[in-house]
Backbone:
């Protein structure tokens, strides 16, 4: 009896572990094969130069250049992949393979980039600061998504809030001549839209997906309508003052990093500050604890006297404010005026960043940077005249998101109660 | 602290849930609140914890009237609820779960004082012998420990009135025993405890005083020393309860279901059924007894084809069904009454008629070559409604507008409408009133006598003892022992349920 | 009482929703009429009256644009001049032309919603279907016309079905939320179409705009009337047939029964021995197929040329439409005719009064909102509700 029991237990332990080990070996093999591919690519590419340059102090000034060959890049990437693949197969489930992907991926990106440029000089300061600028609205939108979904409200209306924020920001800034007023009005309108979404979802128990669709369609309609009926004829309402880039004293003087990180628009700094702020608020404060509880198990929060409904309303208002800010960035900082449909799917990319970043602000920022990077690379390519179909790079964020939600590179788990209506009492 | 509820009345549309209920509990006392499902216990406790507001009546704590508008006020008044369905956030750790809603904060951002909270959790856990790891994630904890986390939550809020709602539903007899020890420790320290249950044995063991609720009103208050099981049962249901089902002796014939060395994993890839062997013959009722969560759910799902097994063999009517789909299993003549009938057995948004053909719509006479035959379907459904006395305005009525009991009857009628060789019924009488329980038991015995093999899974000892010809007790994914129904005693089954030999 | 509850009320709610949405839209029209509002401080009453007149003009243009001018129709009755007849019936035929893709996309959304899957990707499936058909036509231009047409329709439908099947498959196999995947696939589809339209295979030589070679010279869906400037083709007939087929399929077949069961409760469907994953995949493929067929008929019938703006939001309109229709095929047809009329009439309204067509998007959003939150409408019109079938809920 006892020996039987022990045998059973051993086999049950073994089964789960065996599965893990099999999966790990498979993964290791795939990674190693990738490495082999890179080495094969390297063999013919040692004659092609790969030159990356960075501005030292300011754009157009002196540059710092790294020169190597494409073959070398492939060699490094391939070797790294083979080593990591081997370690994965050897160590099994204990090996942190997801983290190791973050080592391999940039090496491959560098190698592919070098191969595509085929000897041309790539200015990476432009690419990186471009990524960062593009990441601003996406990160802000993702923060909005994270706050609402962590509180239990599915939010697919970020796109709509972007449009409303962009339109409101442009109009208010043009009318008052003050950028700040524009941002403020964009925030207010974003909050109004956020409130609307909460009101439909909570008060009227409208399915949160439907409510999101309503807001998105309504936002397209209303902003297009305003543009065509009002702004097209009254251009003075759509010529906002532009936002100047600000060089942060001292910090902007750091070589390489200065022009990259500390010479951006105020939005960049605000976004970074909000990122740190909300990371802290979500995971270290009472507010965050309660918000997360509302999104994971609202009934548990309610039984200890937490007003789940109020928390959800508040977080939707905050989300609206953040998405409105992001919207104002589109019309005030990057384009200089409001255009129809100018969000161009960025709101959905923000949604993708939420998922890709596993509902964590810093993770979402990472995802936003990645999406921004693929955008920036694309403009670099078109400037240098490299023939890569832009549609390919444009699709990257969407395809990556599908891969992530399908759990093909490890499952991410969202807030358990997101999307479910909650009724108190 | 003395707590008193006076003349509490609460109406819901069509139901008088609480009818002038008055109960009281003294400092350091355990009040057993006994009643059937639907007797009004849960409504009363929701009023006490501030979730509902009573239509009339008042709550007195230490002699002063308190009216709760929200759970916070009840908590502040010292009332700690341990809900039947644990109210813990699965992804939080113990410290976060316990402190949630009563956090101490520092700084203008409201930073959560985790270190201090953790210290108190450890301190309380040690003081009351709760043995809880403060850093464990809730979803990784076994149910018994989760319950202690719930108790910790109440203690953390300095509750001096602790309400336990059906606390033993998820516990083994041994764990229940430990819980009683904890309760006694708490009352010795001056805490008042309200212990809600529908199990007679438990109130007699733990309570200092017992109040029995029946149909939303107080049926009587007694002391354990002055009463008996029978009297309590009478108070509960208002008539002599016939705990025995009238049935003749079983005439077991050939083996219909044979389960051999079956291992099944649960959703989290842990082995839930760890090598179970079991046979059910035509003409007998085999009950799988055991505390919820010992692998019964997974075993049933494996038998009816909803879950793939890891190893072993399941044979139904001579056919190996290890890789069979639920459809194939049903086609073999297996009726399945699922545990959560409202969720899994019935489609609330579809009509009675559509629900009646839910698992046989693809067969003659209901359809042929992919086309449904409306007339045959309607005729069969109407017949089922008549045979099973289902109260519904018409067969076109949406199922969700039927009462709970009638919804269950739709499921039973449907499952028994086919020629049945094997009945797999999980918790067949959960949530039903005594009348319906009897009805279902009678139908099961009828099917047995008609030559079907019956496998029921139940956590209710009384039910198991009443209907089963043989009792297989499951513990920790294994069969701890098999007893003859006629000779089995409550004690013998109880010991096996706790894993004892 | 029963008639009120069972028949009138369910039909009344969508009507009230549309009506209310237009009232709100009017308020909005008034508030954005800057020219008129400038007079408000001096002459508030006159401004309001002028505003009302403007709104009346706009909406009457909308109606005339959608259904035609009565006098012209009367004149056409007695006329044999094809030009006169065409001019008179053109608004109506244009409404039907605009409605038919909406019927397809509306049915697509309705099937998926009925199965409990939120197919937000109809837009993408629509254009992928059109792209598939375009490729087929340009790849085999020398095939006999009827054969080529049938082949193109089949390939277009399958392309849409595939684009719908992918998220269905991912949901069934990995649990990936279809709302996210279909949204993402909409964008991927847009990129795929752009990519295709930039290829030498599809684009006319030397062109840099994302528009394909002309297909209508090779093959096109036959027209119903041989009248000048009347574009109405047999796509509308196919659409109506599809509505009947979908209705039959959903309510009279066992597969349809399975889809509806899965739509209400996946768990219960599984317990009843149905394959929940199978239902999801089937529903998504059917949904995508219908959308793809719609796209095919649009490109081969109405437009005759593939472009990246072939779908002017047909897929997104469909969501509003299906909700308005309560996901019933008959309702979808009715709602599609309404939306088609709005689009066509909106065109005339835009020309005559300068009010942008986009107003209708806003109105649509309001319509969905009112349909999805019936309590809003009830509270506006003080409609009392009784519980279903008179049984008191417990």
Residues:
């Amino acid at each position: 009896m006892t020996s039987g029991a022990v045998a059973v237990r051993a086999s049950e332990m073994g089964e789960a572990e065996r599965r893990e080990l099999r999966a790990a070996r498979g993964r290791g093999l795939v990674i190693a094969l990738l490495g082999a591919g890179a080495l094969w690519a390297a063999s013919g590419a040692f004659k092609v130069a790969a030159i990356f340059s960075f501005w030292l102090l300011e754009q157009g000034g002196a540059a710092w250049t790294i020169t190597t060959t494409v073959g070398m890049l492939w060699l490094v990437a391939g070797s790294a992949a083979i080593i990591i693949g081997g370690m994965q197969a050897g160590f099994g489930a204990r090996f942190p393979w997801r983290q190791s992907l973050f080592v391999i991926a940039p090496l491959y990106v560098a190698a592919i980039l070098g191969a595509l440029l085929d000897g041309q000089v790539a200015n990476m300061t432009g690419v990186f600061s471009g990524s960062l600028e593009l990441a601003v609205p996406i990160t802000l939108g993702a923060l909005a998504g994270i706050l609402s979904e962590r509180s239990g409200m599915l939010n697919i209306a970020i796109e709509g809030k972007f449009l409303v924020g962009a339109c409101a920001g442009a109009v208010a800034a043009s009318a008052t001549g003050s950028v700040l007023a524009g941002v403020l009005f964009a925030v207010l309108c974003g909050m109004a839209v956020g409130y609307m979404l909460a009101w439909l979802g909570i008060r009227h128990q409208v399915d949160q997906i439907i409510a999101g669709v309503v807001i998105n369609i309504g936002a397209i309609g209303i902003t297009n309508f305003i543009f065509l009926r009002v702004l097209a004829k009254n251009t003075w309402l759509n010529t906002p003052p532009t936002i100047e880039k600000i060089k942060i004293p001292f910090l902007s003087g750091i070589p390489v990093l200065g022009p990259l990180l500390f010479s951006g628009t105020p939005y960049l700094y605000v976004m970074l500050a909000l990122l740190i702020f909300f990371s802290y608020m979500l995971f270290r404060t009472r507010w965050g604890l309660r918000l997360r509880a509302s999104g994971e198990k609202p009934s548990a929060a309610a039984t200890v006297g937490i007003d789940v409904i109020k928390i959800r309303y508040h977080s939707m208002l905050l989300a609206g404010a953040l998405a409105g800010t992001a919207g104002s960035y589109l019309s005030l900082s990057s384009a200089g005026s409001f255009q129809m449909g100018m969000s161009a799917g960025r709101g959905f990319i923000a949604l993708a960043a939420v998922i890709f970043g596993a509902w964590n602000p810093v993770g979402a920022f990472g995802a936003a940077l990645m999406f921004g990077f693929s955008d920036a690379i694309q403009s670099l390519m078109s400037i240098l005249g490299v023939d890569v179909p832009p549609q390919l790079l444009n699709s990257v964020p969407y395809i990556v998101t599908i891969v992530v939600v399908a759990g093909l590179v490890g499952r991410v788990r969202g807030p358990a109660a997101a999307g479910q209506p909650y009724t108190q009492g | 602290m003395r707590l008193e509820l006076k003349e509490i009345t609460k109406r819901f549309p069509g139901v008088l849930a609480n009818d002038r209920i008055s109960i009281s509990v003294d400092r350091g006392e355990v009040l057993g609140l006994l009643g059937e499902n639907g007797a009004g216990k849960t409504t009363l406790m929701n009023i006490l914890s501030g979730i509902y507001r009573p239509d009339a009546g008042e709550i007195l704590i230490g002699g002063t009237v308190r009216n709760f508008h929200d759970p916070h006020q009840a908590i502040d008044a010292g009332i700690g609820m341990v809900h039947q369905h644990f109210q813990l956030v699965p992804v939080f750790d113990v410290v976060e779960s316990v402190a949630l809603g009563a956090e101490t904060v520092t700084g203008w951002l409201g930073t959560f004082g985790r270190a201090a909270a953790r210290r108190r959790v450890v301190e309380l856990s040690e003081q009351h012998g709760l043995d809880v790891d403060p850093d464990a994630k809730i979803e990784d904890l076994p149910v018994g420990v989760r319950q202690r986390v719930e108790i910790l939550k109440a203690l953390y809020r300095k509750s001096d009135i602790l309400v336990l709602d059906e606390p033993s539903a998820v516990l083994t007899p041994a764990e229940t025993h430990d819980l009683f020890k904890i309760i006694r420790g708490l009352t010795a320290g001056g805490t008042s405890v309200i212990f809600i249950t529908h199990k007679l044995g438990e109130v007699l063991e733990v309570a200092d005083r017992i109040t029995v609720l029946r149909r939303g009103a107080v049926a009587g208050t007694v002391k354990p020393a002055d009463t008996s099981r029978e009297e309590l049962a009478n108070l509960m249901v208002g008539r002599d309860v016939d705990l025995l089902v009238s049935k003749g002796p079983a005439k077991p014939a050939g083996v219909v279901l044979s389960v051999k060395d079956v291992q099944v994993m649960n959703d989290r890839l842990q082995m839930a059924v760890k090598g179970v062997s079991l046979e059910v013959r035509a003409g007998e009722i085999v009950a799988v007894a055991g505390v919820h969560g010992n692998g019964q759910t997974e075993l049933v799902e494996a038998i009816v084809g909803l879950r793939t097994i890891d190893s072993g063999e399941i044979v139904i009517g001579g056919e190996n069904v290890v890789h069979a789909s639920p459809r194939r299993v049903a086609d073999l003549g297996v009726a399945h009454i699922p545990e959560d009938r409202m969720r899994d057995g019935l489609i609330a948004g579809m009509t009675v008629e559509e629900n009646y053909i839910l698992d046989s719509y693809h067969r003659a006479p209901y359809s042929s070559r992919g086309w449904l035959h409306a007339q045959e379907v309607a005729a069969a459904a109407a017949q089922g409604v008549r045979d099973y006395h289902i109260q519904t305005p018409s067969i076109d009525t949406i199922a969700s507008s039927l009462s709970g009991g009638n919804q269950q009857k739709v499921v039973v009628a449907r499952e028994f409408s086919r020629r049945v060789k094997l009945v797999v019924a999980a918790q067949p009488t959960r949530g039903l009133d005594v009348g319906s329980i009897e009805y279902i038991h009678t139908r099961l015995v009828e099917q047995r006598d008609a030559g079907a093999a019956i496998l029921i899974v139940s956590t209710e000892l009384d039910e198991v003892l009443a209907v089963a010809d043989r009792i297989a007790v499951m513990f920790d994914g294994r069969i701890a022992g098999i007893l003859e129904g006629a000779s089995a005693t409550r004690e013998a089954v109880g010991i096996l349920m706790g894993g004892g030999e | 009482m029963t008639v009120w509850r069972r028949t009138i009320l369910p039909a009344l709610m969508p009507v009230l929703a549309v009506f209310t949405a237009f009232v709100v839209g009017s308020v909005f029209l008034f508030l954005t009429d800057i020219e008129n509002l400038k007079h408000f401080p001096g002459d508030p009453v006159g401004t309001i009256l002028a505003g009302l007149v403007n709104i009346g003009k706009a909406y009457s243009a909308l109606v005339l644009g959608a259904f035609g001018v009565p006098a012209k129709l009367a004149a056409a009755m007695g006329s044999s001049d094809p030009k006169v007849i065409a001019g008179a019936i053109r608004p109506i035929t244009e409404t039907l032309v605009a409605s038919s893709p909406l019927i397809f996309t509306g049915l697509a959304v309705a099937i998926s919603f009925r199965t409990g899957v939120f197919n937000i990707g109809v837009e993408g499936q629509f254009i992928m279907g059109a792209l598939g058909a375009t490729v087929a036509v340009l790849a085999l231009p020398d095939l006999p016309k009827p054969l080529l047409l049938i082949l193109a329709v089949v390939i277009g439908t399958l392309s849409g079905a595939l684009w719908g099947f992918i998220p269905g498959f991912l949901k069934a196999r990995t649990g990936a939320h279809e709302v996210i995947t279909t949204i993402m696939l909409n964008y991927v589809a847009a990129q795929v179409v752009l990519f295709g339209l930039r290829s030498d295979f599809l684009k006319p030589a030397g062109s840099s705009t994302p528009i394909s070679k002309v297909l209508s010279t090779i093959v096109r869906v036959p027209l119903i009337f041989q009248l000048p400037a009347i574009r109405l083709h047999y796509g509308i007939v196919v659409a109506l047939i599809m509505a009947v087929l979908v209705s039959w399929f959903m309510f009279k077949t066992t597969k349809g029964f399975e889809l509806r069961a899965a739509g209400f409760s996946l768990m219960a469907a599984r317990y009843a021995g149905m394959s929940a994953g199978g239902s999801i995949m089937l529903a998504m493929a059917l949904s995508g197929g219908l959308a793809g067929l719609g796209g095919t008929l649009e490109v081969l019938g109405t437009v005759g040329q593939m472009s990246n703006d072939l779908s002017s939001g047909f897929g997104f309109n469909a969501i509003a439409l299906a909700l308005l229709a309560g996901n019933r095929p008959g309702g979808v047809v009715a709602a599609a005719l309404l939306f088609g009329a709005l689009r066509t009439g909106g065109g005339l309204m835009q020309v005559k009064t300068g009010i942008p067509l986009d107003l209708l998007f806003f109105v649509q959003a309001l319509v969905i909102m009112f349909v999805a939150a019936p309590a809003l409408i009830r509270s506006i019109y003080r409609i009392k509700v009784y519980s279903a079938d008179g049984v008191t809920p417990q």
Summary: The CA atoms of residues 70 and 115 of chain A lie 6 Å apart.
